[in-house]
Amino acid sequence: MRALVTGCAGFIGSHLVERLLEEGYHIVGIDCFTDYYSEDMKRKNMEGFKNNENFEFIEKYILNMNLMPVLEGVDYVFHLAAQPGVRASWGKNFEVYTRNNILATQRL
After folding, report:
1. What is the DSSP code (8-state) at residue 48?
2. 6-61 pLDDT tens trace
3. How far apart are CA 105 and CA 82, in angstroms?
4. Which residues contact 44 (CB under 8 A, 6 or more apart)?
5. Rounded CA gap, 55 and 45, in Å?
6. What's the CA gap between 70 and 93, in Å, rounded?
7. Cβ count within 10 A of residue 92
8. Which CATH code is given to the segment(s) 2-82?
9. The pTM is what?
């Protein structure tokens, strides 16, 4: 089975990838490393599987990708990429929150 996991470097996404790999899935992981959390922390989340032969990593922003080739042959999509933090969704960061949560989901 082949699965796409967006937000694969986040806390939840990285744990999901680990479990799916244990179950024998081939994983295509996407993450763009926004600055909400440190990139070092997110890369550390991927340490246990980044070199796994059944893991393919794409470091891109969903809104800037041609997703059709990525989705080809995918059996399951786990869309976990998002701008976290409800408080950040109001005020000056509203555009970032809308772009990363709503528009990216629409695109996918």
Report:
1. T
2. 999 999 999 999 999 999 999 999 999 887 778 899 999 999 999 999 999 999 99
3. 9
4. none
5. 14
6. 29
7. 7
8. 3.40.50.720
9. 0.91
